[in-house]
Amino acid sequence: MTRMEPQPGIMDIALYVGGASQIAGVSDVVKLSSNENPFGPSPAAIAAVERSARTLHRYPSTDHASLRAALAEVHGLDAARIICGVGSDEIIHFLCQAYAGPGDEVLYTQHGFAMYRISAMAAGATPVEVAERDRTVHVDAILAACTEHTRLVFIANPANPTGTFIQLGEVERLAEGLPEQCLLVLDGAYAEFEEGYDGGAALIEHRDNVVMTRTFSKLYGLGGLRVGWGYASRDIIDVLNRVRGPFNLSSTALEAAEAALGDHAYVEKCLAENAKMRSWLTEALRGLGIGVDDSHANFVLARFSDPAEADACEAHLKTQGLIVRKVAGYKLPEALRITVGDESACRRVVHAIGQFKAVAE
Ligand code: PMP
Q: Family per UniProt (predicted)?
């Protein structure tokens, strides 16, 4: 019998571990582990999903022209320089497939998002992890780590799971200092949560070595439909389209994303609620003696005194029907990442952590 072997390195890829959404034996569960919109999708997106059912016998658009035009309009971009993917995960994947292979290095930072490593390894490239400073992307450390083999540098801004943010001047300094053969990918999965930040879109207008990725999974509440997009030079978008499957996005996903994008009032309401509850949650946790950096996203990172305390707190929260995210896999074993929920969820989680702290002391 022939034993089919995968490509070298594939079996070294650690499986992505997703968060649970249920707790056995506990009802009234609140999931605060995946940075989802606590208010759900906009009613306009739900209506679009229902409408889309009538044409499900048809293949979806191959070029996503309508969604790209809507994105271009809302963000003031050139539609021809946009590509859509099955979540921004797929754009990350396309970038690695198209630009990195055996012998090439893909850089990301110490607490960087798991998909950078997975996609780099799936392409046969060498993943290289660079230290951060105070849980924040450190531009000089990245520049110092670049070699003649570096092809891609991924940074998320705001970053996950730390919630930290680097100013545009720093991003620009990074883009400017990278070796010629290297692309900078600005992962903007949480860009909308930083007021006034364009995800790096303006930078791309005058720098052809920068790519921006965005998603409908967070602010727009459509994680279940998997819609992401990227923005770059025409040449890069042309390259990425060559590795993209023709029908990568379903018609339902495309229509819902376009409707969600157009529901400005809903988006504004979600942003305002997030800002309000994020500062409330941050202050309440700090009041309990927990270390919390200012977050620029829709979650906070709660740092406990050691990994055992973080684990014990996570277990206690589970008994209270609250699911938060352990981030030991992101080299933060003493921390828990907590999505900013609605007011009642935030109050519940603070109350339960308060209970835990009271018993522990
Ligand atoms: N980048 C970052 C930093 C993320 O946190 C996530 C989701 N957890 C993604 C990309 C991927 O999001 P999606 O594929 O749902 O667009």
A: Belongs to the class-II pyridoxal-phosphate-dependent aminotransferase family. Histidinol-phosphate aminotransferase subfamily.
End-to-end CA distance of the chain: 61
CATH of the domain at 134: 3.40.640.10
Q: Name which of 114, 96, 206 is nearest 153 in CA terms.
A: 96
Report CA(189)–ligand 1 centroid distance (Å): 6
pLDDT of residue 360: 76
HSE-CB at 250 with a 13 A cutoff on CA atoms is 13
- DSSP state letters, 182-201: -EEEEE-TTGGGSTT--TTH
Q: Which residue reads 């920068």 in tokens?
A: 210
Q: What's the average model confidence in pLDDT over 277-283?
A: 98
Distance 323 CA to ligand 1 centre (A): 19
- Determine the distance separating the centroid of ligand 1 and the alpha carbon of 4, expressed in angstroms: 32
Q: 0.95 cut: is pTM over it?
A: yes
Residue span of the structural domain in which 247 resides: 43-262
Pocket of ligand 1, candidates 88, 117, 216, 220: which has the most ligand atoms within 8 Å of its Cβ, to mutate?
Answer: 88
Q: How many domains does the chain have?
A: 2
Domain boundary among 247, 262, 277: 262
pLDDT tier at 1, thresholds 50, 70, 90: low
- Residue nearest (by alpha carbon) to ligand 1 atom 2: 189
Supply the residue whose CA is at minimum distance from atom 1 of ligand 1.
Answer: 189
Integer Cα distance of 137 and 18 in angstroms: 24
CA distances from 62 to 79, 245, 258, 296 (A): 15, 9, 15, 35
Lookup: tokens for 185:
């990918």
- The answer to whether the CB of 290 falls within 8 A of the CB of 304 is yes
- Asked if residue 232 and residue 159 are part of one domain, the reply reads yes
Span 106-116, pLDDT tens digits: 999 999 999 99
* Residue that is last in its domain, among 245, 262, 279: 262
Pocket of ligand 1 (CB under 6 A): 87-89, 113, 156, 160, 187, 189, 215, 217, 223, 228
> In the beta sheet, which residues pair with residue 212?
186, 231
